[in-house]
Write a structure and sequence with these properties.
Blueprint: E1 7-14, H1 18-29, E2 38-41, H2 83-97, E3 108-113, E4 119-123, E5 126-135, E6 157-160, E7 174-178, H3 182-191, E8 197-202, E9 208-209, H4 215-230, H5 238-242, E10 244-245, H6 248-256, E11 261-263, E12 267-269, E13 272-274, E14 280-282, E15 285-288, E16 313-314, E17 317-318, E18 321-326, H7 335-355
Helix pairs in contact: 1-7
The chain binds flavin-adenine dinucleotide.
Length: 360
């Protein structure tokens, strides 16, 4: 700690989800020590990253390919248990096994330029001065709500996937689900047996993908998102490039008419939703399964955004500021992608720190 109360480290990791823990692991593996050389900050109350907040009916068996963190397998988990519990316990064990010493709850409020080429990380628990930053703040904290005319007049309840309580809460209600991603289809399939009626609306017709999502398809999808962030455009959702996997539950939903999609409505009325062609659907609830955006507001003082609205990233390195790595962003926004990105970021940061010995 220097005499201004600011603590000096080589690397600050913001976020202790899959991406932040993978980054912290690679720092440890290559000789950095927690609390001396790097610090991991997370504003959630417990281990688990965003998984700790996911709804109880999202059981471990229902997640589509959760990749283990580097260096410790997740074995023997009961597929019927909520993924929020299974993954939180696994992350907790992981943090202890590798002595990552995550500080929580610590909210990072702003990152600014400091002196001597350092970055200042301002938090609810004081300020750290660092030579490099791994930003792994995910998307859960920034649910995206589109705006539609009349939205504020709706007398029923509106909620986002981020607040989805599980299907029982919709018993006897007429529910409109907005959004063509994996969350929207899962919500519909769960809610339909409990609700009086469900309606599915999406902006674009959903694309169902036959056959398994193999490695080649995965690489293709990642390459498309990668190209966007390389150009400084905001990353697109994974489903927009992969399509929805046509599994048995989805097939059944299509056959039952639960996944019979309507185009986006034109306005919201006090008692439902309405289209310009005169169609009206009564609703008690509008559930916005409209995705998330990267939670990067704390980086705003650094002015990293490009005219295209995104942050230009090469690998994980921010092109405008090579001290900063975005891990779990864009093409690495999956559990497997976050693992790889954590390794890439640490490799680059080690090179950067070796090239630029600490200024006095
Ligand atoms: C419903 C749902 C299901 C999914 N299922 C899968 C799946 O099956 N397989 C898969 O590969 N991917 C899945 N994903 C994507 C998945 O979220 C990512 O793959 C991965 O878990 C994200 O990890 P992360 O570390 O980037 O983010 P997170 O897990 O969101 O971690 C970010 C952390 O940063 C912290 N944080 C944020 N802002 C700040 C701040 N300002 N200060 C301090 N701390 C901060 C948060 O508290 C959080 O702990 C799913 C996503 C959703 C929404």
């Amino acid at each position: 700690m220097n005499n201004t109360g600011v603590r000096d480290v080589d690397v600050v990791v913001i976020g202790a989800g899959q991406a932040g823990l993978a980054g912290a692991h690679h720092l440890r593996r290559t000789g950095f020590e927690a609390e001396r050389d790097f610090v991991v900050l997370d504003h959630a109350p417990r281990p688990g990253g965003a998984w700790q907040f996911r709804w109880p009916s999202l059981t471990y068996g229902k997640v589509h390919g959760m990749h283990a963190l580097p260096g410790l397998e997740l074995t023997g988990a009961d597929p019927a248990r909520p993924s929020s519990e299974v993954i939180a316990e696994y992350f907790d064990t992981y943090e202890r096994t590798f002595d990552l010493r995550v500080r929580r709850p610590v909210d990072v409020r702003a990152v600014r330029d400091g002196e001597a080429g350092r970055l200042l990380v301002e938090t609810s628990a004081g300020t750290w001065s660092t030579r490099a930053l791994i930003n792994a703040t995910g998307t859960w904290d920034r649910p995206f709500w589109p705006r539609y005319p009349g939205q504020e007049t709706f007398r029923g309840r509106q909620l986002h996937t981020a607040q989805y309580p599980g299907p029982e809460a919709f018993a006897g209600q007429r529910v409109v689900v907005v959004g063509g991603g994996a969350s929207g289809t899962q919500h519909l399939l769960e809610i339909a047996p409990h609700a009086t009626a469900t309606t599915w609306v999406t902006r674009r017709p959903p694309v169902f993908r036959e056959g398994p999502f193999d490695q080649e398809a995965g690489r293709g999808a990642v390459a498309l998102v990668e190209e966007r962030v390389r150009q400084g455009l905001p990353p697109r959702s994974v489903v927009s490039v992969t399509g929805l996997s046509l599994n048995d539950a989805i097939r059944q939903g299509i056959a039952d008419g639960v996944l019979d999609r309507l185009p986006m409505f034109d306005r919201i009325t006090p008692d439902g939703v309405e289209w310009d062609d005169g169609r009206h659907v009564d609703a008690d609830v509008i559930l916005w399964a409209t995705g998330f955006r990267a939670a990067l507001d704390h980086l705003a003082p650094l002015r990293l955004r490009e005219p295209g609205g995104g942050i230009r990233v090469d690998g994980t390195r921010v092109v405008a500021d090579p001290r900063i790595h975005l891990v779990g962003y864009g093409p690495s926004a999956s559990t497997i992608g976050a693992n790889r990105a954590g390794r890439t970021a640490v490799r680059d940061i080690r090179r950067l720190l070796a090239e630029e010995p600490l200024a006095a």
